[in-house]
Amino acid sequence: MFESLSDRLESAFKVVSGTHKITELNVAESIKEIRRALVGADVNYKIAKEFTDKVREKALGTENVLKNVNPGQLMVKIVMDELTELMGGQTVGINVKGNPGIVLVAGLQGSGKTTFCGKLAKYLKEQRKMNPLLVACDVYRPAAIDQLTVLGDSIKVAVFKEIDNKNPVDIARNAVAYAKANSHNVIIVDTAGRLAVDAAMMEEVEEIKKALQPTETLFVVDAMTGQDAVNTAEAFNARINFDGVVLTKLDGDTRGGAALSIKYTVGKPIKFSSQGEKLEALDVFYPDRMAQRILGMGDIVSLVEKAQMDFDEDEAKRLEKRMKQNKFDFNDFLAQMQTIKKMGDLKTLMGMIPGVSKAMKDAPIDEKALVRVEAIIQSMTPLERANPEMMSLNRKKRIAKGCGQSLDQINLFVRNFEQMRKMMHQFANMPAGKMGMPPGMGVPKGFR
Question: Which of 126, 175, 208, 291 is positioned for an S-S bond with 84, CB 3.0–4.6 A?
Answer without folding.
Answer: 291
